[in-house]
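ok trying again, last paste got cut off:
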Amino acid sequence: MDVILINPIPWNFSTYNRIHHFAELLSNDGNRVLFVNFPNVHFDKEKEKGRTIPNLEIWHNPYEFDLNLFNRLKKGTRLESKID
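nice, full thing came through this time. structure:
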């Protein structure tokens, strides 16, 4: 299964750690996980270097994210895989 996680706003490290723990659990079960991190929030890249989560892709730029996919996600529409 492909899973898309979008960071919550307001952003904080407690939430960041919970999301990454959730991503790690999903990934360890063989799922591919896409984590979308918008650049208007603080993101500690040095801290991220120490994390190794298989099958995890992180996008730091909202323009990399398919806006049609995002709009369908907001509406609760079933999503097809966008992670290749």
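cool. The helical segments are 13-28, 45-49, 67-74. The chain has three helices and three strands.
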